[in-house]
Amino acid sequence: MAVSRRSFVLGTGAALAGAALAPYAPAMAAPGSPSWLADAVLYQVYPQSFQDTDGDGIGDLAGIIDRLDHLRWLGVDTLWVNPVFPSPFTDGGYDIADYVRVHPRYGDEEDVSRLVDAARRRGIRVLFDLVAGHSSDQHPWFLHSLQDFTDDRYIWATPDQLPADGTLPEQFVASPGPRPGAFRMNYYATQPALNYGYARMHPDEPWRGPVDAEGPRANRAAMRSVMDHWLRLGVSGFRCDMAATLVKDDPGWVETGKLWGELRSWVGRRHPGAVLISEWGDPATSVPAGFDGDFYLPVNGPGDGAPWRSLWRDNPYFDASGGGTAKTFVDAWADATKAIGGDGHTIMPIANHDSATRLNNGVRTPEQFPAAWTFLLTWPTVPTIYYGEEIGMRAVDGLPDVEGSAGRQDNRTPMQWNSLPNAGFSTAAADQLYVPIDPDPNRPTVEAQLRDPGSLLHFVRRLLALRKRHPELGTRSGVRVFHDGYPLTYLRGDRFLVTVNPRRDPATVAVPDGRLRHAREVEGNGVRVEGETLTVDGFGYAILDLARR
To answer: Which residue among 68, 185, 318, 454 sits deepest, i.e. has the most Cβ atoms within 10 Å of its Cβ?
Structure first.
């Protein structure tokens, strides 16, 4: 195969395009964001599916507490918990009916305090979700707006502002109560959009109001109060749902950025060290707006999520056929890094509770997983592990919709702990589980993989320990990319050479570094060094230490 000579050097605060022998550029710490996020490893728990302790078939806060030792053993230091708030569950809890309480099926506020304390004792921080863009239509704020026709906490269009033929504008829902007209929704009709104003007025839409009107000001104050409530209980920050959508018709997200910048400034003053992480998908926009970090996602951002999708979904790089390229991601990451400077971080998940499906997606096979994990845990993004990914849980097709999952239930199946009924998730009858367990009798479990030193679970743990032990593999250290085809090959911290070949066919790459001849393999499989050339077998990978001993 032809070997790309394309190479460049990047640090968290710099990006230099040039020849393969360009001088190495060390990264700088991010002075504008809490230092702990730079070294964090996030673990996402979908609470309904993690561990049930009361036998109702639905996971709870006590179950998360019971499993914290697994996270500590694995090497995780930050736990992100999806919503546990009161809700009618038309969208799995993202339709919130009370922002400052806990739904009884998960426990209560005392359980939140217990979780935070138990996690802290194990060196783990807890992040909650902040769903600032919409509430449930059962929230008291919305119920009040149905009665008080002057209430503008939500976006209402009066009958005289609506089309005379009775049709409704896109995203508007007819009023379900005494208030005439229609309200604007976000994702579902049961999720009325909270009013943060419009960036632009338009005569054809007279319901538009400015960002500094009474309703938007009240909503910004309310979100400060919500954050203050949970931060006082000890959570360390928030993952902010649909963060780009708050201000409507906002070209370039200028007003949205001002809004989040205002909230971030308030958090920094009142709760130093707390973080705000956005579900935005465009770090180059969201981090300068004030966020400490942003997730790459399969939607939003450059090319409608192309950086993420090019790796994991659409003719992905991590596919046995070898038809993809890492260039789309690498270039987007480089652009974002330049835009961010030292003020925040890019965050990389493989899977999540939403539209990012599991690594084990029914196409990739277990032999392909180590190369993917090697990339995830050695690239200078903040890695995020969705529960069960560490054992290779699969996305299960054909499951029934539950609580508005709308096809997303395939990656919300119960955590697979052991060989007991329901894989140790719950003592409930199988037909009472929130989502059915993976029916495959050979499904992976934590218990079985703990007994096998060669398992994926132990491999992930070793990589996490290696990342923690060597700052060169973290976000603060620069990266030099030697090849963004197959195999993806890059140097971290001017010490560790990483190469991954996720296709089934072998690949070679030239690495112009004389230290390669004496490199020591820290982790690897199927990689051979011949002078300054690497030959990587299909699905091969390696982390090579170039330091002289």
So the answer is: 318
Residue partners of 335: CB distance under 8 A and separation at least 6: 15, 284, 302
The string of pLDDT tens digits covering residues 40-97 is: 999 999 999 999 999 999 999 999 999 999 999 999 999 999 999 999 999 999 999 9
Contact 489, 509 (CB under 8 A): yes
Q: Which residues of 222-244 are buried (b: 16+ CB within 10 A; e: fewer)?
A: bbeebbeebbebebbbbbbbbbb
**Tokens describing residue 385:** 């592990």
Closest CA to 301 of 331, 264, 268: 331
Which residues are registered as beta bridge partners of 129?
A: 239
d(CA 503, CA 255): 44
Residue of 482, 383, 422 whose CA lies nearest to 10: 482
- 468 in Cβ contact with 75 (< 8 Å): yes
Closest of 66, 142, 62 to residue 98, by C-alpha: 142
Distance CA 393, CA 91 (A): 23
Give the pairing type, strands 182-184 and 172-174.
antiparallel
**For residues 373 and 156, what is the distance between their CA atoms, to the nearest angstrom?**
47
CA 238 remoteness from chain centre: 12
**Structure token digits, residue 66:** 């019971």
pLDDT at position 33:
62
> What is the number of helices (H) and of strands (E) in the chain?
13, 19
Torsion angles phi and psi, residue 233, rounded to 5: -85, -5
The Cα-based distances of 116 to 111, 120, 355 in angstroms read 9, 6, 28
Q: What is the pLDDT of residue 171?
A: 97
pLDDT at position 549 is: 65
Q: What are phi and psi of 393, to 5 degrees?
A: -55, 150
Contact of 394 with 30, CB cutoff 8 Å: no
The dihedral region occupied by 407, where left means phi > 0, alpha psi between -120 and 50, and beta the remainder, is: left
Q: Which residues contact 512 (CB under 8 A, 6 or more apart)?
A: 20, 21, 482, 532
